[in-house]
Amino acid sequence: MQPTLVGTRFINGDSTLRVEALEVHLGGQPVLKGVDLTVVPGEVVALLGPSGSGKTTLLRAVAGLVRPDGGRILLGSEAFFDGERGLFLPPERRNLGLVFQSYALWPHRTVYENVAYGLRLRRMPEKEVRERVLSLLDRLGLTGLEGRYPGALSGGQQQRVSLARALAYDPKLLLLDEPLSNLDAKLRDQARVWLRETLKATGKAALFVTHDQVEAMAIADRIALLNEGRIEQVGTSEELYRNPRTLFVADFLGNPNVVDALVVALEGELVRLELSGFPLRARAMGSLTPGRLGKLVLRPEALRVAGPGEVNAVEGELTHSLYLGSHYEHWVRVGEAGLRFLSPAPLRERRLRLAVDPEAALAYPA
Amino acid sequence: MVTTYLYRLTTITGTTAYHLMAALSLVIVLIAFSLVLLQRYLLGRMEGRYVAIGARGYRTERLPLGRLRYLWALLLGVYLLVAVVLPVLGVVFRSLVVSWGPGIDLREVLTLSHYAAVFQLPNLSRAVTNTLVVAALGGIAALAFYLLIALGIQRGRGWGRVLDYLAGLPRAVPGLIMGLAFLWLFLFVKPLAPWRNTLLALILAYTVVWMPYGVRLLTAALLQVGREVEEAARIAGASPVRAFLDGTLPLLKGGLLTAWFLLFIQFVREYSTGVYLMTAGTEVIGAQIVALWGTGAVDVIAALASLQVVVVSLVFLLANRLGVRPQGL
């Protein structure tokens, strides 16, 4: 029997999502190679990563649309999947909400019927269904559209109907697959704020997939960054941006400069490097070996034109200056390496010295 | 053609050459099966590549032909006239005259008596109603069966491929042989014997003969409906069957209707399968024409054939009226 809505509230005690050592193969190829992830009640977590990293597969495995090959998925004390016990709960018994990338609204049903579907399946009295659906539509700014068919709605409205449909039967966990990717750029900026507020207002845990780092940072409490079927790092956006554990994380967030530099000596937390003949100090982000090449990550916003007497700087030739409205973007050639940085005003000099704080420069083993 | 050759093996020579027919049909089955394998190999896997109706609908583009369009229209017109209109008119005309040839006055030979004969002779009028029943109801039964197979092909993973080959196999068997095979089946398998004298025997044989065609229509229709509408229903709490009925089936309605019309037309036109299966009481137009040809009853044949053309045309018009666009015809 389906759990009733009243029932779920009583057994709602602990509903932490735990994914443990999850493995998924699709068409013989390993897509997830041992993924661990925890989402606590009320938390919004983003699955971020390049295409092919397995983020959508992870979401579909939690939803029950993909059958994993090993590991466990638990929501509270309820096991959704347990590889050892051979247990697999089909999607209809997981009581989750899912917003599809394409929204996947049923085109032959009205907005009202789309949202009411899950409630009617749970045999809720029609009067309560009506109350619930209408109040939900009202909360999501869809009042008056209940009689329309999805084809007659804008992209933004369809997205909200899809969210309403997923929320209708009060799921413990909300899953969203690239929720904003079908909106045009301008709408997306507003939708980000709206989605964050709406998700937080429901008080539900939410797991959403995105390939857009800005979207992940804006909406999520924590980000899980995936790469080739593994989680590289999980943390708040600030943790990931400031203390990227691997070169992949540092490179993926914020489109930084990544250049080769020779490791000269280790100085505790810092490392001395040489970039095209210029000495530089940076944070050591892994086991670096003097005499070997390392990867130096310099974020454009960490670079500035050096004042007189400023140390920890490199010198180079200005090759391009682009006016981008709110700021200028400059490209500077330092030996073999090209460095990109930003400034509010145009630059006059052709030869420049660029300074960086040692704490803001990150050095990784190559 | 092999089919007609096989038919002659028995009728013209007068000897029963069932053993030859069986051997020959097995060879044909083998050849066609290897061709089916080749086709599969060349097409590769189609899943996902032809999804057209997601949740957002689709649109087709017109190809502008420019000034050449009049030339194309003319060529097509001439082709249709020669290949379709003239032969059909000939048959219809023949059904309305007593005899024809040079120097005959049309006013004297014009008659409706052939049609009267069709509706007076019980075996002929039965052929007309039986054909309609087999095409309409049999079409529905066959469709339901094809739908299950198409679903199995789409979702059965490894088994789906096996099913795909099996469903394509009847393509290799001429209708005449399939009719014969079913005749033997009903004769020699005792529990089935009572069905032999019913239309079910015909419907069963037709269903098998047209399986490759029908399954193809339905897999094409299924490919047009994205899987997400069904997944969304599962997530909302529907069982797999419920999710299919609520999510995919309503979007499949157009495709099913189209398939039914196309199948109806094929079932009305089908002649070879019924030749051996036909019994007193289960006559159908197509097979009846073949049987009558031996007796030389050209008048009645022309009338029956004209009725066939009328039925198919009416159904075709109705289908078009209902917005069915037959693409696979």
Structural summary, described in words:
The complex is a heterodimer of chains A (366) and B (329). Chain A has 366 residues and is of the alpha+beta class. Chain A folds into two domains: 169 residues, P-loop containing nucleotide triphosphate hydrolases (Rossmann fold, 3-Layer(aba) Sandwich); 111 residues, Nucleic acid-binding proteins (OB fold (Dihydrolipoamide Acetyltransferase, E2P), Beta Barrel), CATH 2.40.50.140. Chain A contains nine helices and 21 strands. In chain A, the strands form four sheets. A six-stranded mixed sheet of chain A has the order 7-8-9-3-10-11, with helices on both faces. In chain A, strands 2-1-4-5-6 form a five-stranded antiparallel sheet, with helices on one face. In chain A, strand 10 and strand 11 form a beta hairpin. The longest helix of chain A is centred in the middle third of the chain and has 18 residues. Chain A is elongated and about 75 Å long. The N terminus of chain A is likely disordered. Chain B has 329 residues and is an all-alpha fold. Chain B has a domain of 210 residues: MetI-like fold, CATH 1.10.3720. Chain B is built from 15 helices and no strands. In chain B, helix 6 packs antiparallel against helix 12 and helix 14 runs antiparallel to helix 15. Chain B starts with a helix and ends in an 8-residue tail after the last helix. About 4% of the residues of chain B have low confidence. The interface between A and B is medium-sized, with 29 and 23 residues.
Spell out the blueprint of helices and strands.
The complex is a heterodimer of chains A (366) and B (329).
Chain A: H1 5-10, E1 17-26, E2 29-39, E3 44-48, H2 55-63, E4 70-75, E5 78-82, E6 87-88, E7 97-99, H3 111-121, H4 126-139, H5 155-167, E8 173-177, H6 185-202, E9 205-210, H7 213-219, E10 222-227, E11 230-235, H8 237-242, H9 247-252, E12 257-267, E13 270-275, E14 278-284, E15 293-298, E16 304-305, E17 313-323, E18 328-334, E19 337-343, E20 351-355, E21 361-365
Parallel strand pairs in A: 3-9, 3-10, 7-8, 8-9, 14-21
Antiparallel strand pairs in A: 1-2, 1-4, 4-5, 5-6, 10-11, 12-13, 12-15, 13-14, 15-21, 16-20, 17-18, 17-20, 18-19
Helix pairs in contact in A: 3-4, 3-5
Chain B: H1 2-11, H2 18-43, H3 68-95, H4 106-109, H5 113-120, H6 122-155, H7 158-168, H8 175-188, H9 199-209, H10 211-223, H11 228-236, H12 240-269, H13 274-277, H14 285-293, H15 298-321
Helix pairs in contact in B: 3-15, 5-6, 5-15, 6-7, 6-9, 6-10, 6-12, 8-9, 10-12, 11-12, 12-15, 14-15
